[in-house]
Design goal:
mainly beta, conserved putative lor/sdh protein from methanococcus maripaludis s2 fold, three-stranded antiparallel β-sheet, elongated
Length: about 100
């Protein structure tokens, strides 16, 4: 690591530092938190919760880039929509609609 100007205080030669490096241009995107749903769906679909929170329906999505915290949603969701991101293992495979209680 090379510093422009004065070396910051508290950093010594040979010290291990954990950094977060971002490459690429900034862009606006719909983001979806990483969660257990991905293991079941492969990122192909999610359960979208209705506005009232009474049920959730299966919604096809397309995911793009990802980091350890979020997925970029390319299509299928709009900002502000709520989805279930936890594991879907207990829901079975053939349900298009979940009734939430």
């Amino acid at each position: 690591m090379e510093f422009d100007g004065v070396q910051p205080e508290g950093i010594t030669r040979g010290q291990t530092l954990h950094i977060r490096l971002e490459l690429g241009n900034l862009s606006t995107a719909v983001l979806l938190p990483q969660g257990g749903f991905y293991q079941k769906t492969g990122g192909q679909w999610v359960y979208l919760v209705d506005e009232i929170g009474e049920y959730a329906i299966k919604r096809k999505i397309n995911l793009g880039r990802q980091n350890p915290e979020v997925f970029e949603v390319l299509s299928g969701l709009q900002p502000g929509q709520r989805v279930i991101t936890s594991s879907y293992d207990n829901y079975g495979d053939n349900f298009d609609k979940l009734i939430l209680k």
